[in-house]
Amino acid sequence: MDEKYYVYMILTERNTLYCGYTTDVEKRFQEHKNGSGAKYTRANKPVKIVYKKEFCSKSDALKEEYRIKHKLTKSQKLALIEL
């Protein structure tokens, strides 16, 4: 069975976006909510998942995560969410 990888964005209480990758978006979101996800989401409480996209390879997911985190402005990220 081929494992699927996902890039996701979470909206935080401070109206910021957190981007990450995982094989299980719902499980990862719960980890963020209970404080075991990432340092950023411990300081900026997650509210909801606002974006997710599936990839067939970890490499492709990591490339997209990097692109979103480091190449896109907040307005570009918001436009991506609206698609």
Written description of the protein model:
With 83 residues, the chain is of the alpha+beta class. Helices cover 45% and strands 29% of the residues. A three-stranded antiparallel β-sheet has the order 2-1-3, sandwiched between helices.
Characterize this entry briefly.
The protein is of the alpha+beta class and 83 residues long. The protein has helices at residues 25-33, 39-43, 58-71, 74-82, and strands spanning 5-12, 17-22, 46-55.
Which secondary structure elements does this structure contain, and how are they paired or packed?
Blueprint (H helix, E strand, L loop, with lengths): L4 E8 L4 E6 L2 H9 L5 H5 L2 E10 L2 H14 L2 H9 L1
Antiparallel strand pairs: 1-2, 1-3
Which terms would index this structure?
single chain; 83 residues; alpha+beta; GIY-YIG endonuclease; 3-stranded antiparallel beta sheet; 3 strands; 29% strand; globular
Proportion of helical residues? 40-55%
The number of helices is 4
Q: What is the name of the CATH architecture?
A: 3-Layer(aba) Sandwich
Can you give the mean pLDDT? Answer: 96
CATH homolog superfamily? GIY-YIG endonuclease
The span between the termini is 29 Å
What overall geometry do the principal axes of the alpha carbons give?
Answer: globular
The run of helices and strands is EEHHEHH
From the helix content, strand content and strand pairing, which structural class follows?
Answer: alpha+beta
- At the fold tier of CATH, the topology name is GIY-YIG endonuclease
| Total domain count | 1
Tell me the β content: 25-35%
Largest sheet composition: 3 strands, antiparallel
Biggest sheet, spatial arrangement of strands? 2-1-3
CATH C-level name:
Alpha Beta
In total, the number of strands is 3
As residue ranges, the low-confidence spans are: none
The radius of gyration computed from the alpha-carbon positions, rounded to a whole number of angstroms, is: 12 Å
